[in-house]
Amino acid sequence: MAKGILHRADSRGYADHGWLKSHHSFSFANYYDPQRMHFGVLRVLNDDDIAGGGGFGTHPHANMEIITIPLEGDLQHKDSMGNGTIIKNGDVQVMSAGTGIQHSEFNASAEKAVKLLQIWLIPNKQNVTPRYQQITLNPADRHNQLQQILSPNPDDAGVWIHQNAWFYLSKSDKGVNTEYSLKAENNGIYLFVLSGEISIADQTLKSRDAIGIWEIDKISIKAESDAEFLLMEVPMAV
Description:
This protein has strands spanning 3-7, 13-16, 20-24, 42-50, 55-61, 65-72, 74-79, 84-88, 91-96, 101-107, 114-121, 131-136, 147-151, 159-160, 166-172, 177-181, 187-195, 197-200, 203-206, 210-214, 218-223, 227-235.
């Protein structure tokens, strides 16, 4: 029988640093909730709003798969691997931190805010050689369907990571029903609504609501209005 957990938008942790306003779906920094440490290997889902000119100075990471999805505006990235790029809405970036990296992220604009999702997954391999990947997606490929943006396989669509996980974006018109079959046994899905309203597993979710479901083979998602969402299939065993 399917199991699930519902995370309403207003139940998330929140931090306001002036230049950064961040909602935390799971325990992060000064937000700690023992009931919300992770969902399977999904460790962090931060919904960040960085003011013009603001950003994160150089800081380290190790043994984590870090995915950045800009929603509005442009993010300037620099790291100890020598990468210096601009990540825009429509792009997806991943860093496999592995044995250790340092990086910085700043709003590329002095005036306009940048909004993004930063997601951390616990990897299935420790101490790998750090790597960086960034791609640009075609938004038309998610209209009324699931656009794969991440997988474990370098030859598949999207970026790849050291974990048996798949991510999808969808932008659905009102009334569209989307079916999803899980790819791996013992995985679950965590679905995060970016905008609009959907129904899933007898629940209605609105913007920034999320639901985690496991012990299922497939799921049906209906757009109750024009809606956008991120679907993440991840291993439940950490």
